[in-house]
Amino acid sequence: MLKWMAKLLGDSAFELPPGVPEAWAQRLEKLLEPLDQVDGGKGRKGLARDILGFVLQGEPMAVLNEVGQRPEVGERFRLTGYHYGRGSRELPDVFEHFGELPPAIALRWARVLEASVKGQASSCRMQLPRGTHWPEVLLMASAETSVTGWSSERPKAHGLTCGQIEAMLREDGLEPASLLAACFATPIDSGYGAEQRLLMLTDLPDYPQALERHLEVVQPLLLAAAVGQRLHMLAMLARATAPTLEQLAPQLCELGVASSKQVRIQAEGALRRCGTSASAPLRELAVHGKPEQRLHALRLLHQLGTERVDGADVTFARETAAVDKAPSVQALIAEWDAGRQAAEPEDEAYEVVLPSIDWSAANCRVPPEALARLWKVIDESITRSNASMREHHARMVTQGHKFPLRQDESFTAADALALQAYLDSGQPRPPGRTPQRGRGWNHVAQPTLKLAETDGVSPAAMLKVLLFFDIATSHDGMLIHPAIQAFNAMHRRLGKPSLIDLSCMLDQAGQSGQALLRNYCHAWGSPFAGDWPNEDVWPFFAYHLEAVLQALLHDTIKDYSFGRAGLFRAIATLPKPPAAAINALFTLALGPGKTDRGPAQEALQHHPGKKERIVAALADGKAETRAVAANWLARLRHGPAVPALEKAVAKEKHDVAKGAMLDALQALGQPVEKYLDRKALAAEAAKSLAKGMPKDLDFFPWSALPEVRWADSGAAVPSDVLRWMIVQAVKQKTPEPNAVLRKYCEMFDARDREAFGQFALETWLREDVRPIPPDEAMRRAQSLAQGTFSSMANYPQYYQDSPNLGKSVEELTAVFLPGQLRQPAGSAIGAKGLLAVAATCARERAAGPTQRYLKEWYGSRASQGKALIAMLAWIDHPSATQLMLAIGSRFRTKSFQEEATRQAEALAERKGWTLAELADRTVPSAGFDETGTLELSFGPRSFTARLLPDFKVELFNPDGKKIAALPEPRQDDDAEQAKEAKKAFGAAKKELKSIVDLQTDRLYEALCTEREWPAADWAAYLQQHPVLRHLVQRLVWVELVDGKAARTFRPLDDGTLTDHEDNAVELAEGARVRLAHDSLLGADAVSAWQQHLVDYEVKPLFQQLGKGHYALPEAKAGNDAIKDFEGHLIEAYALRGRALKLGYTRGPAEDGGWFHVYEKRFPTLGLQALFEFTGNPLPEENRTVALLNLSFASSADNSRGKLTLSKVPKVLLSECYNDLRLIAAEGTGYDADWQKKSEY
User: Fold this and answer.
1) Both 458 and 541 in a single domain?
2) 1154 pairs with which residues across the strands?
3) Which ranges of 769-875 would DSSP assign to H, the alpha helix?
């Protein structure tokens, strides 16, 4: 017997127990050794010896109690604290030979681990008999993951087997299947991370065999009631063998027809592996189940039978569906027929041949001069950084701060030789090196980007360089930023690698090629390979199609940075998506998930047979699916669907679905009235109201409803009808009105309708911000005051600049009370459907209170704000439309901007206009007619208001005499009309300022975006508009003929056009018009027009000419940012002031509450300009900052993925460049030490 010398046992030799590998004992000794160190009161001499003795020999037993009382033991084992087992193992691996241990010794070690977390036992999740925790703790220890951690990443068990754990359970007097049963039966909501831990058992290599051994234990647990638990059961069966699943076929079939779509989708994969064993249970459910179960069972039989080429199941499904009583089940026939027409032939299935990767020294060669330059730049960066850190450290030390000086280690000649050897090796895997990502990211990332742009460097060589410096992939396998930049740049230069090339390279280099799917779908920044040609992308997705579909349907990728929109883009790259992908898309396109619905429908845009499947969905068993199908048909303008829609609407009992069907019929040119029965409306309303009111309407003042009359008869609309409309709108939970509501409200008297809509809007607004009671406000203010008073007393140094310093509790209460009195008691978001009534009925009065609400509550009522914006899109009045457009272009909250732009685009689509045309055609006139006159009637006599070029308004009495103000009405005047006239006059003057401000911004955007108008549209909507015409007269315009500038001109007050030499201009037929810019005119023409404006005392609306023109150098056309002003210093407040004046808004706060960009949106182009600086914390400080760059991005892209500069309109680029130049001029100019002077 081998004698083993153990230091912990006093260097005495003794025999290891039989079966204990010496290597395992040595690793255990090394793991325990630090526990003998007494440091700061922790540890005990001999503790490690006692633990080792207990594990190997069973004595002393008392050590378990001591371990339970010493938190440092759990921390040493990485079982407490925050450890997540990422990357290489930090501890001696005592699990490598663990499977060779006798059960008794293995159990004793597991009990030591269990004892080490005794104080954290509440963090254990698995529910085993006797409150046993050691199996769970053993699994966590094998993953080197703490039981107290908080991570969304699932720990992976290592070095254990089910067979061994079963033997340990027997040794402990428990049933061998105890752990397996616990992993199935423990509720996944029993604590944070419970499901992740329960799934760890499936990591063990012999788990499938254990599952088969103990099938009788698992079988009764599968049909749990909760959806989440059912999904967990199916996840636990993911590694089950086909024979095991065949024995579970009855239970899996029950799950396959469950009411939860998530459960059905997960069960479908398991049933597919059951083969013919699933047929009999499914047939039973197809005949004797509930209607929804019958539908799902038949759909599964048909689908699985088709895949197995099992004609019997397919025939059974069709025949059974045809005679089923439920229309939704019968509709399966049409669905199958449409799917069969569109299904691809078997011989068209994708066969992707994986490329061969050349790792030879010749192909991985890096030009010596490029490699030398790389090392030189890296060395200089490290030297410069270390000097800066030393200086910063010295400065902090003089200020009393104490922290260690950090210096980056320089690379050596040995590193250079190692890289060259790796490049020459012909081997894809990198040499073993100490992780050095920090050093690589800080100093190597930028030089490697230059290397990617160097001729003679292949993709294989590039990957080797990135892997060598540890800047290729993250711990989860994804490419990290330096690698993304490098391969995107390389693809721009060479057109390679393709995505599947790179995937194979990564696999062969020991990385994860499939992880590129997550890079492609990354939600932040420009997605990797997002602009690569489809032919360089689709083979990767065809090869990994199953992973794409799993992520699409089963949401298998839980990473919070994963963007599902990328999955739809991935499928769209395929030359012809296979039937499985098409079915997955239809499931989402007609499903309840609003986020996926739109992208899925868009991905099916060109799919043949699509319309037939949508029509079939009108008979679906779920009202929401029927509504989605109807809405989709409306957008498609699919005329042949009219008969099916008419049939469906006649049967429809669900109000939301019926409304969607009527919307579709109206969109398809059918008069909605013929489907509505006004005579039966009162009875229908009373019947519906008898079911009760939604709780969300408890606040509504029903008794205060305004009286509403029918327009044709003047008869009062029954109050029950008005109540029913409100209730139905609230039930639909959307501020966008459906066709039923719109059509009935169109039948109301116009003034009554407006009053009804305004009442609904103001009631909702009032309820949403109804303040808390005064006594509650006082209590909160007092509590806040007491807390602030105590904090100031304890930490006065943090309040030196606070105006509250030195105030008493009573004084602080008085300061805080006004704010508390305004705190909303609750929210009316649950009743946002009420806004659909306002959207249908309200008109010009709606914009004012909506604008005030958004301005005041934007920071704390995001959902309400978006609902109001959606409402504005449906209000049929220019003031509402223009407010929505203004929000889309310049509101301070980005989510509001995006919602307003989305709603504006939808409104433009409904009207058949572009977004720019919508803005032109809905400019309010403030009541002035085309001559600039506003008639103000007092009944027997009328006054006149005339609009002047400077937007002042003159008043004239009935005799044409100028007066200062409207008089009080005389006895013979109509008092009500006089009151309305005064209100209209006041509103007109107030609205004028808003119109001028908004249209000035819009015309400047038109300059930047190079907007062109057909001459006729320009004349009708701009030159002849009573307000806009005064704005366009202060600008210089260009006539375009055949796309080329022909003449420049300016409109005059009399409606004619002139050039700068006072010659009359008449626009050619078919000409187009745009705003002049320095980039279009020569220097002489610019000078002439500037002199013309001076001569005629015309103040330009904005500086249109004379700023100069920035022309993008050809060498920078492929860049995504302008860095001409990088390093220019400016005070933060000066930067903010100038940026705001130029129309920019502050970008979003990021990590640590810092923001780094100012942005300006150009909605008609869907772009935003972003200029980046070194950043400022919130609340802002007036500190020195440095400008960095100017870039452009899609305004629909939350990630701010940058566009290449060549894709930006030239005028927009020039104007934004000049903005940045003006901002830089506010500062002190470029400073070589800008990084140091702008650091925090």
Assistant:
1) yes
2) 1177
3) 774-794, 809-821, 834-841, 847-857, 862-872
Helices (H) and strands (E) in the chain, counts: 56, 18
Residues 844 and 816 grouped into a single domain: no
Domain that holds residue 1166: 1114-1237
* CA torsion angle 264 265 271 273 (round to 10): -170
What element of type H or E holds 644?
helix 642-651
Within-domain flag for 1109: no
Mean per-residue pLDDT for 742-758?
94
Alpha-carbon span 937 to 692, nearest angstrom: 47
* Assigned token pair, 1022: 């701009």
pLDDT, tens only, 645-690? 999 998 888 877 888 899 899 889 898 878 888 888 888 889 888 8
- Structural domain ending residue among the three candidates 192, 221, 250: 221
pLDDT tens digit string along 150-197? Answer: 776 788 888 999 999 999 999 999 999 999 999 999 999 888 888 888
Beta pairing, strands 933-937 & 1013-1014:
unpaired
**Alpha-carbon distances, residue 1236 vs 116, 385, 441, 1228 (angstroms):** 48, 11, 20, 15
246 and 212: one domain?
Answer: no
pLDDT of residue 1201: 66
Closest CA relative to residue 1075, chosen from 1015, 1003, 1016: 1003
186 and 194 in contact (C-beta within 8 Å)?
Answer: yes
Residues 727, 684: Cα–Cα separation, whole Å:
13
Question: 1071-1104 as b/e, with b when 16 or more CB fall inside 10 Å?
Answer: bbbbbbbbebbeeebbebbbebbeeeeeeebeeb
Cα–Cα distances in Å, from 402 out to 394, 396, 743, 1213? 10, 8, 73, 47
Q: Tokens 């006539």 identify what position?
A: 1039
Q: 0.85 cut: is pTM over it?
A: no
- N-to-C CA span, the chain: 66
In a domain, 1104, yes or no: no
Q: 717 — phi, psi (to 5°)?
A: -75, 125
Q: Are residues 817 and 834 in the same domain?
A: no
Closest CA relative to residue 506, chosen from 527, 487, 532, 525 = 487
Distance CA 918, CA 920 (A): 5
Q: Which residue has the higher pLDDT, 873 or 85?
A: 873
| CB 447 within 8 Å of CB 378 | yes
Residue linked to tokens 């890296």:
378
Which tokens in the block code for residue 862?
Answer: 């995001």
Stretch 519-523: mean pLDDT: 88
424, 518: one domain: yes
DSSP code for 42: B
Pair 432, 510: CB distance under 8 Å = no
DSSP assignment of 1087-1125? HHHHHHHHHTT---SS--SSS--PPPPGGGTT-S-B-TT
CA nearest to 147, candidates 116, 107, 182: 116
CA distance 954 to 964: 8
Residues 1069 and 954 in one domain: yes
Domain count, the chain: 7
Does some domain include residue 598? no
What number of other Cβ atoms are within 10 A of residue 1022's Cβ? 22
Question: 340 in a domain, yes or no?
Answer: no
- Contact, 483 vs 473, CB < 8 A? yes
Residue 761 has pLDDT above 80, yes or no: yes
User: Which helix or strand (DSSP H or E) is residue 1159 part of?
Assistant: strand 1154-1162
- 957 and 1082 both lie in a single domain: yes
CA distance 555 to 543: 19
CA distance 773 to 1065: 67
Q: What's the CA gap between 525 and 1202, in Å, rounded? A: 8
Whether residues 812 and 869 fall in one domain: no
